[in-house]
C-alpha cells in the first residue's frame, strides 16, 4: 500500500447515536471543537454514521458553523442566511452551490495574495519604501474592484435590452464636453 496515498486520505470520524464522535485515526473520542480546529488547520476528514455508514460530513460542518455563530463569531449575515434558505428545494439549488463554492475559492485566493503582499511590505528597510510598497495591496484591491464592476456592467448590458443605448449616451456626453471645451478655447484665443 502506498503511504503517500494513505496520508492524503481523509480521516474517518464515526458519529454514534449518543452524538459522540470517534476518531478512527487516533482511536479516541473527540469534540466538535476538535473538528473545528482541524478545519482551521486544513486537515481533511469525513464523518459517517457509526451504524449505517451514511456520510454526515455536511451536517457536522453545519453544526460547527452553528456552534461558532452561537459563541459570537458572527460571519454569516442574516440576509445571506435567508437567501440561502430560499434556494433549498429550488431548481437553482445546484447553481447556487457551485456559485458559493467558486466565490469562496476566489475569496481565499485573493486573501492569500493580499496576505503575501502585506507580508512583503513589512520587510522594507525604510518607512518611505514601506509606504510605497504598502500601496501595492490597495492597488491590487482597487484592480479587483474594477474588474468586478466591469464584469457586472457587461452582465447588465447582456440582459438589458437597452444596454447599448447607455454606452452610446456616455460617448455622446463626452463629445458634447469636448465640443464645449474647444468652444471655450476659441473664445479664449479671441480675447
Topology diagram in text:
Blueprint: H1 3-8, E1 11-15, E2 21-23, E3 28-30, H2 32-40, E4 45-49, H3 57-70, H4 78-86, H5 93-121, H6 127-159, H7 163-190
What would you note in describing this structure?
This protein has 191 residues and is an alpha+beta fold. The chain folds into two domains: 7-75, no CATH class; 81-161, no CATH class. Helices cover 67% and strands 8% of the residues. It contains seven helices and four strands. It has a four-stranded mixed beta sheet. A hairpin with a 4-residue loop joins strand 2 (21-23) and strand 3. Helix 2 crosses helix 3 and helix 5 (93-121) runs antiparallel to helix 6. Mean pLDDT is 75; it is low at 124-128 and 163-171.
| Terminal-residue CA separation | 92 Å
Using only C-alpha atoms, the radius of gyration works out to 27 Å
Secondary-structure element pattern, one letter each = HEEEHEHHHHH
- Gross morphology is globular
Number of strands: 4
What would you call the structural class? alpha+beta
Give the number of helices.
7
Kindly report the average pLDDT value: 75
Strand content: 5-15%
Spatial order of the strands in the main sheet?
3-2-1-4
Q: Low-confidence segments, ≥5 residues, pLDDT <50?
A: 124-128, 163-171
How would you characterize the largest beta sheet?
4 strands, mixed
Q: How many structural domains are formed by the residues?
A: 2
Helix content: 55-70%
Amino acid at each position: 500500500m502506498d503511504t503517500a496515498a494513505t496520508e492524503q486520505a481523509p480521516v474517518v470520524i464515526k458519529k454514534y447515536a449518543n452524538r459522540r464522535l470517534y476518531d478512527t485515526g487516533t482511536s479516541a473520542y473527540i469534540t466538535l471543537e476538535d473538528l473545528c480546529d482541524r478545519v482551521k488547520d486544513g486537515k481533511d476528514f469525513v464523518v459517517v454514521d457509526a451504524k449505517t455508514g451514511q456520510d454526515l460530513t455536511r451536517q457536522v460542518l453545519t453544526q460547527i458553523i452553528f456552534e461558532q455563530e452561537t459563541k459570537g463569531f458572527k460571519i454569516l449575515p442574516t440576509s445571506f442566511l435567508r437567501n440561502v434558505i430560499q434556494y433549498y428545494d429550488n431548481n437553482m439549488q445546484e447553481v447556487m452551490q457551485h456559485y458559493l463554492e467558486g466565490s469562496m475559492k476566489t475569496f481565499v485566493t485573493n486573501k492569500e495574495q493580499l496576505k503575501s503582499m502585506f507580508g512583503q511590505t513589512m520587510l522594507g528597510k525604510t518607512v518611505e519604501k514601506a509606504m510605497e510598497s504598502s500601496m501595492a495591496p490597495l492597488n491590487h484591491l482597487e484592480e479587483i474592484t474594477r474588474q468586478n464592476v466591469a464584469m457586472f456592467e457587461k452582465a447588465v448590458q447582456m440582459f438589458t435590452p437597452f444596454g447599448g443605448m447607455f454606452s452610446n449616451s456616455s460617448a455622446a456626453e463626452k463629445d458634447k464636453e469636448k465640443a464645449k471645451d474647444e468652444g471655450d478655447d476659441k473664445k479664449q484665443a479671441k480675447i
